[in-house]
Amino acid sequence: MKIFIDTANIEEIKEANEFGLIDGVTTNPSLIMKASKGGKSFKAIATEILREVNGPVSLEVVAEKAEDMVEQALKLHALGSNAVIKIPMTLQGLKAMKILKEKEIKVNTTLIFNAIQALLAAKNGAAFVSPFVGRLDDIGEDGMAIIDQIKTEYTNYGYKTEVLVASIRNPVHVLRAALMGADAVTIPYDVIKKLAMHPKTDEGLNRFLDDWKKVSPDGSLPL
Ligand code: E4P
């Protein structure tokens, strides 16, 4: 399963990249807004991320009409060959997706909240769909249930669109995504760090290191 980091913060991206876990990045206008608080321009933020990561970087259009989305998509794509264009799941978005598919520009269809929307995006050639599971949980639904449905649809019809589970809030979302065979997950940095943690790991490590000091008082490995 591919792991993407869901942020536009370059420091978080660099740190996470050092762990060797990051296959790509997803951003959205709200994440860009947070990252631009220090005064950095959108273009500077996007270009830096595209250079830092050796994998797809999703950058989102901020238009509502198909022709404006396509115009913005072409500009975003010109920033780097690994740019994937996030298009919202609307009728105008579907129209834009069709045009971008003809131009061989990869699309990540965003703001997917049910499996029918995901079916339409795949039909129009999206490279990725982003179902927002956490936001469904927020309104009392089981967000992960739609991942299973989307996987079934794509298997039934042989769609190659990758299911990129988004709006992830905790490690259980990641576990369920992996068990359902999701192609990718996009995760905030604080949740990525939690994935590696377990209190019994910390307890076990502390005990080993304490015992080792009884062998080697300065804690070194005397070889
Ligand atoms: C996906 O690509 C979005 O950037 C993101 O996962 C949204 O998550 P949120 O619901 O936590 O804002």
What does this protein look like?
- This protein has a single domain (2-197), classed as TIM Barrel.
- Strand 7 (162-165), helix 9 and strand 8 (184-187) form a beta-alpha-beta unit.
- The two termini are 39 Å apart.
- The protein has helices spanning 10-18, 29-35, 42-52, 66-77, 91-102, 115-123, 133-138, 145-157, 171-179, 189-195, 199-215, and strands at 2-6, 24-26, 57-60, 83-88, 107-112, 128-131, 162-165, 184-187.
- Strands 1-2-3-4-5-6-7-8 form an eight-stranded parallel β-barrel, surrounded by seven helices.
- The radius of gyration is 20 Å and the shape is globular.
- It is 50% helix and 16% strand.
- Helix 4 (66-77) crosses helix 5 and helix 6 (115-123) runs parallel beside helix 8.
- The model has no long low-confidence stretch (mean pLDDT 97).
- Bound molecules: erythose-4-phosphate.
- Residues 6, 26, 28, 110, 130, 132, 134-135, 166-167, 186 line the site of erythose-4-phosphate.
What is the gist of this entry?
This protein is of the alpha/beta class and about 220 residues long. It has a single domain, classed as Aldolase class I (TIM Barrel). It contains eleven helices and eight strands.
